[in-house]
User: Fold these one by one.
Assistant:
Number 1:
Amino acid sequence: MRMKLFSRFSRKRSPNFSPSTFQKDNTNDSTSENSGHMISSWMETPVSKRPLRKKHLSRSYDENLMDDYLDKQLGNSPRKRFRTKKELEKETEKEAMIALSLGFPIDALLEEEIKAKVVSELDGKEQNDYIVVRNHILSRWRANVHAWLSKGEIKETVSNEFNHLLHSAYDFLLFNGYINFGVSPTFKPQMPEESTEGSVIIIGAGLAGLAAARQLLSFGFKVIVLEGRNRPGGRVYTQKMGQGHNGNYAAVDLGGSVITGIHANPLGVLARQLSIPLHKVRDKCPLYDPEGKPVGKETDSKVEFIFNRLLDKVTEFRQIMGESCGDISLGSVLEKLTKLYAVATSVEEKQLLDWHFANLEYANAGPLSDLSAAYWDQDDPYEMGGDHCFLAGGNWRLIEALCEGVPIFYEKIVKTIRYGENGVEVITSDQTFQGDIVLCTVPLGVLKKKMISFVPELPERKLEAIERLGFGLLNKVAMVFPYVFWGEDVDTFGCLNRNSENRGEFFLFYSYHTVSGGSVLVALVAGEAAKSFESTHPSTLLHRVLNVLKGIYGPKGIEVPNPIQSICTKWGNDPLSCGSYSHVRVHSSGSDYDILAENVANRLFFAGEATNRQHPATMHGAYLSGLREASCIYRVRQTINNNSNDDNNNNINNNNKQNNPKKSIRRIIGVSDTLVNLFKNPDFSFGNFLFVFDPSNEDDQSTGLMMVAIDNDDDDDDKVKVKVNNGQSQRAVKLYTMVTRVQARDLVAVVGGGERGLSYMSENLGLKLMGMDCFALVANSLISNIATRRSRVRNRVVFGNRVSYT
Ligand SMILES: Cc1cc2nc3c(=O)[nH]c(=O)nc-3n(C[C@H](O)[C@H](O)[C@H](O)COP(=O)(O)OP(=O)(O)OC[C@H]3O[C@@H](n4cnc5c(N)ncnc54)[C@H](O)[C@@H]3O)c2cc1C
């Protein structure tokens, strides 16, 4: 998670710096006179920077105010056609500014727009007109994110002569997830009733998976999400903790918590759609030394200045070093520079500088010694603007809303993904799912550990990128106290550690009392300390963190109560995460994020925070990656559809045909489909009764499946007709139940099946028949087990009949 609470974001390059100076001094010992001279000139360099942890007056942030603001800016009913030229110009300018704030260039097209061929000719009048229309649509959508913005509404405000541009811009923005995305309940009627675009199996119900699922459903795809846990959200996990006297729980985010930069942030849009208030994280962040004494203002400012200047120097260093800087760690450069300039020499200054380093390690989920000096901050230019915010009630509220209407199968840990020309197959421990496309959103840590086998293996360049990129750790101790003893006027405070090695242990505390519904403090553990944290007993950790708090508040005469409940996270040991979030490691670079995002053979797609070069390691980055991949999948399908239309017109484009799988709208095969497949090859049948058993268990009491095919012919409904294996009648109703081998044998003994068999079954054996959906639900794991066992056995003799399985 990128945090800009602190000074690294305000660094500025020193104008006095010259490469030769660095080279000369680089060889010097930091204690030399020469370096002493360097230090003073270095320290005196005027740096204009944003004030550190600046004070803010306003405490709460109402995202709905954004609606009002934009409404006012745009006017209530913008009927462009009837406005004066001057009014139009003014409005166009405002709309351009809004588009700019959303990441669109004022006078150019996005690369994606160029690729999508939104205009027939670049850089001409048509492009200019397109940009005006596009900005208008974007502004209209942002002015009211609660309602679906239709083409019809836009038409009312754009002259007819620009109709083609309106279509082009609207379709681009819609299908690339720039408008009409999110969770507004009013979007429901816009959802297509039928899925016509093929099937997508999404792995992972985190932000990326859920964002993609909703978009794909709205584009008309058939979607299912397979989630390994028994809950959605992945690394967004809001835990209910510490029931208070009033019976209420506190909602505590154990994973992603801060919305980092609210402007243009899609999560801000979700919050507005759900009318969830946001709380701005206030910049005030007092620091305490290891004895619990407040750090003096002067030292604080001085060391912060040093820290900023060191980062400036790193930037200059890499400009000189060029490519070779990719092999060097940020940690080693910072260490050398600190020595070279002989800064932060007193114990207190050193501890304070270590605190800033720990804060960097938090932002990057990794020790500085792992981070690439060249590219660790490659995403800085794309940082979301605006305040950092907490969401009232926890981020779970976003997850809950995103899940609505999305078919999610829980506790399905994916082991294997097969992909090929004819589609994809996703294998979990108890089931196999088939579809047209698979979107994998599992964390980078899971890919690194090869928890999923890809068949065929992923391309070498992707495997290398997975290996190169870093995936580090951040852990938390979440504590609910009986009351707020730390003061209501801060959202964060920091503590210095004695030794560099554990500088990241409880270095920063977040107070969630404003948003969680309880007196919640969360202590962060970053860098090397986050690793040893996971192997330490939670009671030891709690004891240590309470000692830190007692050290700070004891001398102030404030008693630190025991927490009502506490939780220590272990994101590294979590097999479905294997770490916290990604960073650019030594030897890696931003382009590895792009490689991770590449699809394979237009069948296997990837999303998730570690596939987002501009916004990695964040919640919004994960969400945006889901929208991005939904658009990619949509585009691929469109190409396929167009190609197949071309095929029909005998105009075959061979190149495209090779790259794109055939259009085959296949159903996702889940439990119901497995059931149908099983009965295509029953172990045995008699009359209208068909049986399937687990081939590896011959026990009389072992349970299998039974299907009865009953003719549903209205003309002849007084008779139950006998249907054989392949059930010729389309009108046969198929009913199912579970049956033991011995019960099955009993039924065989009832001559002929049919009505006699049915009444014997219910009266003598007490078996109840169910429809397919109900049965698939009830007998889910039995069906899957039998299917798995059968797939392992090629031939088997049951009840004297030889049945072969292929
Ligand atoms: C401690 C911590 C603090 C953070 N703080 C912030 C913050 O303050 N602000 C911020 O913006 N970001 C923060 N982040 C990062 C943010 O939470 C993530 O970037 C984001 O949630 C990732 O979403 P995702 O969809 O890419 O992955 P995930 O949320 O991890 O979703 C992937 C899903 O795949 C599932 N899965 C994994 N393997 C399998 C398998 N084999 N079969 C089936 N399912 C599988 C997982 O269970 C998971 O649900 C933090 C993260 C952590 C861990």
Number 2:
Amino acid sequence: MPSPSHNTKRCFPVKWEQPDKKLINDWYHKYVVTGVLESDDTGGSKTQQTHYTYVGNAAWRYAEDDGMTKDRWRTWSQWRGYSKVRAVLGDGEDGPQTRTETTYARGLDGNYQGKGNPRDSVTVNDSKNLLGGITDRDQFAGVVLESRTFNGAFSDDAEISASVAMPRWDKTISRTFHDTNSDDDITVDGGRVLTQWSKGRSRKADGTDFTTQITTDYDDLGRTIAVDNEGDTTTSADDTCERTVYPSGTPPAGANLTLPIRTLSVSVDCDNAASNEPNLVAGDMISDTKMLYDGKAYGAYPTTGDLTSAEKVTGVSGGRSTMATDVTSTYDGYGRVLTTTQVGDTNTTNDDRTTTTVYTNAPEGWLKSSTLTSPPERCPRLCQRQPRRPTHRSSRPLTLPSALPSKRHRSPAGISFRRGSSIPSDLLSGRFSGL
Ligand SMILES: [Ca+2]
Ligand SMILES: [Ca+2]
Ligand SMILES: [Ca+2]
């Protein structure tokens, strides 16, 4: 049998108790999937085959952190799998097989080796050393570090494309407990695993690689605050930067910390000063949206989290976005939208367009019906032709399919609706008359 603390086999140590309370050190076996067949029972298509091979040695880690196992049961029984798993899709008879190879972190660094023994020191890397050899920390177990696709053979020459992701560990808490089994102190960390950057490459016809890169910044709470998308790494012309802003300052009790108050997207690298206020450039602007919640001013922490107003960018002045209210909404106590108003031009009066929904509940409490009233069409002729408000017996608004060929769709009754606008249910049911 292998050494339990450095076990590279698929058998693993298990402790179990006899009726007389005697503890038995035993070995069980781990089984892995070597193939999956997906058969089409109704359509008659050929069975799809995927075969898996596992490269290198298996690995196991000491059960130090599961929070459930009592000390006397602990051993090296946590399955950490294989570093590389290869998948071959297809049988090769009716087309080329697809070959992929995935490299995983397994969380083997610091694996406990028994009292007084130094813990393991383990690093992992991708095939091109883009990661530079990172610590295979416990929390990275199962994280995909590299994914490669091949044509014909698992070799560098046959690589078609690949992606590599650098994991990042943010520790937020730790706990040390005394393991009475080993009479040793064991520290367990808690926190979150994030992706610091990802790089992609795909093989061009001339044999060189087209490379891309995305870097992500996070705040202290692990929220994404900037996505620096370099796109093609050989040119800055396609770079974009997306920033997400959250309320600042001490949050009040019950504050919702997940809702952003602003998303800014510009066509310049995040490392460029022009990617943020007060250095914005009009020509770089892609979009800028501010979100206001619960009827409060911009920047206030959401509590209920009802999006009551959204502002859109109208231009850039002095390096800052100029904003105008785009949409306002009201809600009932259940968080259902009562009114949505598309705010019109600031220089035009009476051009706001409000959609209203009235909900009718059954005495038992469930939603019985809802009535959605759309704003009148802008065309004066159609304004006159909207004879009554549309009513339907569903909690979901009826909309025209968005795949209509043109922006306006002329119905057989001679009425046109904008794509995505609501349809009177009378028209859908054929009961529309009087025009
Ligand atoms: Ca670029
Ligand atoms: Ca950058
Ligand atoms: Ca107006």
